[in-house]
Prior knowledge:
The protein has 140 residues and is of the alpha/beta class. It has a single domain (2-139), classed as Glutaredoxin (3-Layer(aba) Sandwich). Helices cover 48% and strands 20% of the residues. It is built from 5 helices and 5 strands. It has helices at 2-28, 42-48, 62-77, 93-98, 125-135, and strands spanning 35-36, 51-57, 83-88, 106-111, 114-120. A 5-stranded mixed sheet has the order 1-3-2-4-5, with helices on one face. Helix 3 (62-77) links the parallel strand 2 (51-57) and strand 3 (83-88). Helix 1 (2-28) packs across helix 3 (62-77).
Amino acid sequence: MADDRSWDEDLERIRRQRLRELEAAAQLGRGAAVLQVSDATFSDIVQKNPFIVIDFWAEWCGPCRMVSPVIGELAAEFAGRVAFGKCNVDENPRIAAGFGISAIPTLLFFANGMLVDRVIGAQPKEAIRSRVLRAFGSVR
């Protein structure tokens, strides 16, 4: 009996997770766009968005390509609460140099214009979601 209950709980957990993923994917088409950040727009974007995560990446970076869809999914999941942006370090070296970014992907978390957290390297979606919630606790 206990094994059946455990099995049912596992199936329910998987079902809920899949539903969240489908809802996030559906929201991508509803204006949860990932902002394109450049040297020229960086300050304005950070000031206009109380909570924002910016993904610093490059086209040639394999781990960056792994993180990119996760950023889109989290943008949909946190739509209206946390903004997400992408900044190509090859095209925008001034910002990268200003924050001492020497490895990509690097995620920078800004709250009210202030840098509050940094993640270096490719991380799974759940790890990034956890950091978003830790950095911006009031967005739940």
